[in-house]
From TrEMBL:
Organism of this sequence: Microbacterium hatanonis
SUPFAM superfamilies per record: Adenine nucleotide alpha hydrolases-like
Start and end residues of each tRNA-specific 2-thiouridylase MnmA-like central domain: 208-272
An example Gene Ontology molecular-function term: tRNA-uridine 2-sulfurtransferase activity
One GO term (biological process): tRNA wobble position uridine thiolation
Similarity field: Belongs to the MnmA/TRMU family.
Region Interaction with tRNA, residue ranges: 147-149
Active site: 101 (nucleophile), 198 (cysteine persulfide intermediate)
Positions of ATP binding: 6-13, 32, 125
Gene name tied to this protein: mnmA
Enzyme class: transferase
UniProt entry keywords in alphabetical sequence: ATP-binding, Cytoplasm, Disulfide bond, Nucleotide-binding, RNA-binding, Transferase, tRNA processing, tRNA-binding
EC number: 2.8.1.13
Protein name: tRNA-specific 2-thiouridylase MnmA
GO CC annotations on file: cytoplasm
Length: 365
């Protein structure tokens, strides 16, 4: 096959590309330049997609003897990921930019161009596996549960899966990937994993958002509607947050309070006891299936609401364009804007963006 290897400059994508070469494929490396923000142009930036990363990717490609290119996707990244991130926070939701990047950039824009250029598949260093099932190609968890990235790939469609290649999915551990990189003489063997949001390299998400959304003082309310504090901008809060609330009125029971709801229209934040974070139902209408859609409109599944959270057994219902999920045991601290990924065992069924939540605890508690 002709393979386009997406090379981030990290160890995973470098080893994935190397394995594609070893498998006898015709491989071309490409690094995506996604951001033109100043902070991403200096060595030592804490995100990914820096100039330093591009240089690391080129060195890996040279070592593997493959052609290498840098493609500028910064405008599309700005439109589909950064602007989406800002608008979601402005609407009081908590988005996952990595999920949106996979959906709109790595497996949409990149894959579209790859197919146009005659490539059969895009290779990445994601930890996930593809399985030929009775109804077509299926997306499954990686063998290393600690590194499994199937959650952030839950946005992929059947057509996109047909043009993807995940060489690392069956690798038992990240340590083995690093050891393999060292044996191959790849300089990224011990390079630390990227962290933080790549377009906010200093990690100050609150300050970054304040510059774009604006900081306007508002009220902090308890569940009864009583004013118990003030804030400098609702965008700085997310459901489940405990620190930084600066409440002027202590709770009657003396226990800490957590953010339960962000209301952007009124610029208010609602707080309450930890028990009120329990969520009995979630629903969303922006959904997709990683393969064939479920045959039944109601079905049992496991649901994961964060990249590193445990899956929760639940019952899902699809009706009138919405997916509604009722867990066997309440979720803890779910925020609108998060992504819920549905599983059948290790198989990814699909995903939806959470638009509505129902608390398991009455408001008068």
């Amino acid at each position: 096959m002709r393979i386009l290897a997406a090379m981030s400059g990290g160890v995973d994508s470098a080893v994935a590309a190397a394995r594609a070469v070893d498998a006898g494929h015709e491989v071309v490396g490409v690094h995506l330049a996604l951001s033109r923000a100043g902070g991403t142009l200096r060595a030592g930036s804490r995100g990914c997609c820096t100039i330093e990363d591009a240089m690391d990717a080129r060195r890996a490609a040279d070592k593997l003897g493959m052609p290498f290119y840098v493609w500028d996707f910064s405008e599309r990244f700005r439109d589909d990921v950064i602007d989406d991130f800002v608008s979601e926070y402005r609407a009081g939701r908590t988005p996952n930019p990595c999920m949106r990047c996979n959906e709109k950039i790595k497996f949409a824009a990149l894959l579209e161009r790859a197919v146009e250029l005659g490539f059969d598949a895009v290779c990445t260093g994601h930890y996930a596996t593809l399985v030929d099932g009775p109804d077509g190609l299926e997306l499954h968890r990686a063998s290393d549960s600690a590194k499994d990235q199937s959650y952030v790939l839950g946005v992929l469609t059947a057509e996109q899966l047909a043009h993807t290649y995940f060489p690392l999915g069956d690798t038992p551990s990240k340590a083995l990937v690093r050891a393999e990189a060292a044996e191959r003489g790849l300089t990224v063997a011990q390079k630390p994993d990227s962290h933080d949001i790549c377009f906010i390299p200093d990690g100050d998400t609150r300050g970054w958002l304040a510059e774009r959304v604006g900081a306007e003082q508002g009220e902090i309310l308890d569940r009864s509607g009583a004013v118990i504090g003030r804030h400098d901008g609702a965008h700085a809060f997310t459901v489940g947050q405990r620190k930084g609330l600066q409440l002027g009125v202590p709770a009657a029971d003396g226990k800490p309070r957590f953010v339960l709801e962000v209301r952007p229209v009124s610029n208010t934040v609602v707080v309450g006891p930890k028990e009120a974070l329990a969520t009995a139902e979630i629903a969303g209408e922006r959904h997709s299936w990683a393969g064939r859609a479920p045959a039944e409109s109601a079905f049992g599944c496991d649901v994961q609401i964060r990249a590193h959270s445990d899956p929760v057994p639940a019952r899902a219902t699809v009706a009138d364009g919405w997916v509604t999920v009722v867990p066997d045991e309440p979720f803890d601290g779910v925020a609108p804007g998060q992504t819920a990924v549905l599983y059948d065992g290790t198989r990814v069924l699909g995903q939806f963006t959470i638009a509505r939540t129902v608390s398991a605890v009455p408001a008068n508690v």
